[in-house]
Amino acid sequence: MIVPVILSGGSGSRLWPLSRELNPKQFLPLVDDDSMLQGTLNRLQGLDGLAEPIVVCNESHRFLVAEQMRAIGYEHSAIILEPKGRNTAPAISVAALHLQAKQDDPVMLVLPADHVITNLEAFHKTLNVGKQLAEQGKLVTFGIVPTCPETGYGYIQQGQSVEKQTSAYQVARFVEKPDLATAQIYLDSGEYYWNSGMFMFRCSVLLRELEKFNPEMASSTAKALNQACSDFDFIRLDKESFMACPSDSIDYAVMEKTSQSVVVPLDANWNDVGAWDALWDIGEKDQNGNVVHGDIISESVENSFIYSSNRLVAAIGMQDCVIVETADAVLVADKNQAQKVKQVVEKLKSGSREEAYLHPRVYRPWGSYETLDEEHRFKVKRIIVNPGAALSLQMHHHRAEHWVVVRGTAKITKGDEEFVLTEDQSTYIPLGTTHSLANPGVIPLEIIEIQSGSYLGEDDIVRYSDNYGRVE
């Protein structure tokens, strides 16, 4: 049996402004109509002995993960919530511990949630080789057959062939991201592969080697899982225990130290979509070498990536550029310097700018809201509530709200009152009044909310009850 373990903890800062900390790239449809998380799960279909997946993610992404998995048919898969990311080794350890407690030592297939692989036949064939080795007690990593002297990836050097396997090698060493000259030497040698971050091993073997080489991590993750609590399909790790765990990658914690590591070459049109230039690489290009999305007009533009989310973008006389438009931010960059977008995000965070964390449209388990206008002491939002969904019963200390229904039917709780509003009807929620909003209908409910008060931050919410476990 193969259990996919999907690591979905990244922030995707180099794909800003589309990717934001609270809605990162793995939840975005960057390549086709599916999100990258959904694509990761979908490409596993057809493998023999495939079990329900486990996803390890940040606690703040839990409802995005649950909804996107539900949309492709995974209703009751386990979702392990990290209170804060501690790199890949602790995430893989808690997944292995969870599986070992539930099943008879299955083979784990560890995959990042944000990769693109287009040659599924080659991918499945390589995974089957990895499964055979994992069942024999090997710790398998998949090395991407390099196509250029890439300086943005770590590398794995192959050693001797694994006995009875012509397509697997002992790991000679892992090496850090090289400079260009060194990367060219690696490419020319034919002995090196890009480090993909994909792995396969039995739970017991991984945990045994982790205990050997990093007992503190093994102990902390075991304690975090033993003291975890569950609600819905979420497994909430104990925060204190998990935060005490050393932060390290599985490469450093285990794979570089163990004598059981092997590398299986993977040549399946892989891309980690690490920056905008990578999306240009894999995108469908027009006659001028441009990859475009949305409402675009270009004149004398070549070899560029142009993405529009909300409005017309016109570009003239440009080569090798990236232009990305969203509702609240526009990125213009030299395509060859696309990796530096991460530095822009760091500046946004240092200035406490919301553009680093949120889009104007913010998704919640009950639907979404979008800020339409905001000035001192007032804010206007468009709120969409999914059929059958409801916001928490809550109260605000610093603001009052006026709700106008523009589509659908709203069931309102206001203090001791409960009533229904339909289109063109409204109600006023005074400051300090407990209230809730629900959609009892079969179409989305849309309301315009006008907030007024001395403080309009999202943290001014006191929840009394909630369908989604958000009451502290």
Write the layout of secondary structure elements.
Layout: E1 2-8, H1 36-42, E2 54-58, H2 62-71, E3 78-82, H3 88-102, E4 107-112, E5 116-117, H4 120-135, E6 139-144, E7 155-161, E8 169-175, H5 180-189, E9 192-202, H6 203-213, H7 215-226, E10 229-231, E11 234-236, H8 239-243, H9 250-255, E12 261-266, E13 270-271, H10 276-282, E14 291-293, E15 296-302, E16 305-308, E17 313-319, E18 321-325, E19 330-334, H11 341-350, E20 361-364, E21 367-375, E22 378-385, E23 393-395, E24 399-407, E25 410-414, E26 417-421, E27 426-429, E28 435-438, E29 445-453, E30 462-465
Helix pairs in contact: 3-6, 3-7, 6-7
Which key terms come to mind for this protein?
single chain; Jelly Rolls; alpha/beta; 472 residues
